[in-house]
Design goal:
- By secondary structure, the chain is mainly alpha-helical.
- The chain has one domain (2-309).
- The chain has 13 helices and no strands.
- It has helices at 2-28, 36-60, 64-76, 79-84, 86-105, 108-115, 118-130, 136-156, 169-195, 201-231, 239-261, 264-286, 292-309.
- Keywords: Golgi apparatus, Membrane, Signal, Sugar transport, Transmembrane, Transmembrane helix, Transport.
Length: 328
């Protein structure tokens, strides 16, 4: 299944890069703006539908009876196994709230740089929970990746307009650190779930999006419920807005495939490359000006990818004793 892994990684880079451009386009276009909470909810519903369709076609040859039997037995017939999938959904929800807290209490550039610690926390949890063996070269590559992405992100991000007097840096840094730990743990925990047991990756996606959609619906009701009740859930949606939702849903499916056939660390490298690609594309579509710091950061990211892909050095086994000498 090596071709699946390669194709999924290439598509993930393209998806992440195009998502940045479509989201930027959606934010800068004139007219009514759609509700972000509604977009998140619709994305999860779309992932449930897409995963169900793939599961129906690939595992059940369009046999609806067989499909619903599996859904019933695996999701509702094994509640404890299903509840395991609720853990990453809940953690990601808490993490998103922590990110808002961090952004509110740190300058934007400081937040972007410090948030790249998630690259290293993911590696640490991969070693701790999955017993993954990383060479010194691979640890070095992740350090270079952290530095490269931090340089690129700090270059792209302008300072926040929030009054520094209203910011609490201790709270901000604490929120970032906890968020990075949550990100690393949830990603690796999800990887462990996807790679263990007999359950299909598409069924796991259905379970994940079920819990995520419930949490998204609660967030939508709490934040924008009154306005959505008046204007409708599709208020402000146009072609670009629907493209953002479709792109995010496709990305969610791709991430599951990458984690299943590769790992979270490789996923981190792919998303980092996407940052470089999206910035280069921004030159064409948005007139973005590339400066020396971006070139340095991009070079570090590319170097990190090359170093991580190098095969581990083969161990040389030395003889424990000399062969007996022959008598002449």
């Amino acid at each position: 299944m090596g071709w699946v892994k390669t194709l999924a990684l290439v598509l993930l880079v393209a998806q992440n890069a195009s998502l940045v451009l479509t989201m930027r386009k959606a934010r800068t276009d004139e007219g009514d703006k759609f509700f972000n909470t509604a977009a998140v909810f619709l994305c999860e519903i779309l992932k449930i539908l897409a995963s169900s369709l793939i599961l129906l076609i690939s595992n059940h040859k369009c046999n609806l009876t067989s499909f619903f039997n599996e859904i019933s037995s695996e999701i509702f017939g094994r509640p404890w196994d299903t509840l395991k999938v609720a853990v990453p959904s809940f953690i990601y929800t808490v993490q998103n709230n922590l990110l808002y807290l961090a952004v509110s209490n740190l300058p934007a550039a400081t937040f972007q740089v410090s948030y790249q610690l998630k690259i290293l926390t993911t590696a640490l949890f991969s070693v701790a929970l999955l017993n993954k063996q990383l060479s010194r070269t691979q640890w070095l590559s992740m350090l270079l990746l952290f530095l490269g992405v931090a340089i690129v992100q700090s270059h792209e991000t302008s300072e926040s307009s929030v009054d520094p007097a209203s910011q609490n840096r201790l709270v901000g840094f604490s929120a970032v650190i906890v968020s990075c730990l949550f990100s690393g743990f949830a990603g690796v925990y999800l990887e462990k779930i996807l790679k263990s047991g007999h359950v299909s990756i598409w069924l796991r996606n259905i379970q994940l999006s079920m819990f995520a959609s419930i949490l998204a619906a609660c967030g939508m009701a709490a934040k924008d419920g009154r306005e959505i009740a008046e204007k409708g859930i599709f208020f402000g949606f146009n072609g670009i807005a629907f493209a953002v939702v479709l792109n995010q849903a496709f990305g969610g499916l791709l991430i599951a495939v990458v984690i299943k056939y590769a790992d979270n660390i490789v996923k981190g490298f792919a998303t980092s490359i996407a940052i470089i690609v999206s910035t280069v594309m921004s030159v064409v579509f948005f007139g973005f000006q590339i400066q020396t710091s971006f070139v340095v950061g991009a070079a570090l990211v590319i170097s990190a990818v090359y170093l991580y892909s190098l095969p581990a050095p083969k161990a040389v086994i030395l003889p424990t004793s000399l062969p007996p000498s022959r008598k002449i």
